[in-house]
Amino acid sequence: MVRSIAGVLVGIVVAFATIMLVERLGAILYPQPAPVDWTEQVAVADWVARIPLPAKLLVAFGWFVGALVGALVAARLSRRRAMGWLPAALVLVGGIANIAMIPHALWMTLAALVMPIAGGWVGARSAASR
User: Fold this and answer.
1) What is the pLDDT of residues 56-115, one digit of tens each?
2) Cα(61)–Cα(59) distance, rounded to whole angstroms?
3) Which of 90, 96, 78 lies closest to 120, judged by CA?
């Protein structure tokens, strides 16, 4: 039981740290042109529309890789494949919250749903196969 809880907690931390690293890479490669007033929905929507496509792809890739690595770590440490789905589920919830708060294109909305599930599946399956 303790092994499962610890594995999931470490998997969650690793998942979100991975996402933060990938998104930081995107911020370095594609810096924000001007500060955004996050209280103004129109300004946020305009800012998101101006983000280059490769930067948006990095965000979606971060959701996939974060869920994958988090699931892999959680499943390996807990020695239970099912535990890998918990970090992936939290990445999914985070993606849904992001989409709910910030307007995105339809493909980004779909990516927020698909990428964490795909990453969790790959991570959990990879942990079980070894």
Assistant:
1) 999 999 999 999 999 999 999 999 988 999 999 999 999 999 999 888 899 999 999 999
2) 5
3) 90
* Domain residue limits, the chain: 2-129
The answer for 79, left when phi > 0, alpha when psi is -120 to 50, beta otherwise, is left
Contact 114, 39 (CB under 8 A): no
Q: Residue 42 and residue 74: Cα distance in Å, rounded? A: 39
58: its two tokens: 């990095």
> What is each CA distance from 76 to 6, 20, 38, 86, in whole angstroms?
11, 22, 39, 13
Rounded Cα–Cα distance for residues 77 and 41 (Å)? 42
Distance CA 109, CA 60 (A): 10
Q: Which two tokens stand for residue 75?
A: 């499943």
DSSP 79: T
Alpha-carbon Rg for the chain, nearest whole angstrom, is 16
- CB-CB contact of 51 with 34 (8 Å): no
